[in-house]
Amino acid sequence: MRCGRKVGRGDIELPKRLKAGEPATNLRKLAQVIGSVPVIGVHDPYLDGKALETLQKLIGLGSGISKSLRLLTAPKTAIAAAAVASFLRDLNIEMGCSWELRSYAGTTKAHRRFLVLQDKSVVTCGLSLNNINKDEALDRLPMADQHAGYDRKFFDACWGVGVPVV
């Protein structure tokens, strides 16, 4: 299966899996699946500074990332929250963005990690953006897909009650 988007030095094969031991290839695959459609939301319960670095790398590979990206994560310890919030402020200044990070409370931490794109499609990557060197699923669900609809509703509901991480 070939993807019609060009990333880096050309298309790479896109099985619906990422592979452990191939972090650079996994990053290119993720960038290829995202393409130029801006990512407007990220749900990653383990989001940290490394995840923010991965998003920077995706921009460098030509992925569309919204200037007003919404990042949603599970609650963090005070020290972890302060560290990621500080790095996020620095990124916003450096890149001229207004990315916002919120955490949501709940009795369970949603395990599913996904990216919401501006065209309402959803990229599921099966892993946290803080470590893309794993064997995990990778897929892009079209806007009309039932699971994409579920993920968008989940994201919007959690965002609505989320607490800004500052």
List the helices and strands and how they pair.
Layout lengths: L16 E2 L4 H12 L4 E5 L5 H12 L4 E9 L4 H18 L4 E4 L10 E4 L4 E3 L11 E2 L1 E3 L4 H16 L1 E2 L2
Parallel strand pairs: 2-3, 3-4
Antiparallel strand pairs: 1-7, 2-5, 4-9, 5-6, 6-8
Helix pairs in contact: 1-2
Describe this structure in words.
The chain is α+β, with helices and mostly antiparallel strands and 166 residues long. It has a single domain (38-164), classed as Endonuclease, Chain A, CATH 3.30.870.10. It is built from 4 helices and 9 strands. It has helices at residues 23-34, 49-60, 78-95, 146-161; strands at residues 17-18, 39-43, 65-73, 100-103, 114-117, 122-124, 136-137, 139-141, 163-164. The strands form 2 sheets. Strands 8-6-5-2-3-4-9 form a 7-stranded mixed sheet, sandwiched between helices. Strand 2 (39-43), helix 2 (49-60) and strand 3 form a beta-alpha-beta unit. The protein is globular and about 35 Å long. 33% of the residues are buried. The model is unreliable at 1-9 (pLDDT under 50).
CATH secondary-structure class: Alpha Beta
Kindly report the name of the CATH homologous superfamily. Endonuclease Chain A
Give the assembly state of these chains.
Answer: single chain
Number of spatially distinct domains: 1
Q: How would you spell out the order of helices and strands? A: EHEHEHEEEEEHE
User: Main sheet, how many strands, which sense, barrel?
Assistant: 7 strands, mixed
Low-confidence stretches: 1-9
The level of helicity is 25-40%
Morphology call: globular
Percentage of residues in DSSP E strands: 15-25%
pLDDT averaged over residues? 88
What is the number of helices?
A: 4
Any idea what the CATH architecture is? 2-Layer Sandwich
Give the distance, in angstroms, between the N- and C-terminal Cα atoms: 43 Å
The order of strands across the largest sheet is 8-6-5-2-3-4-9
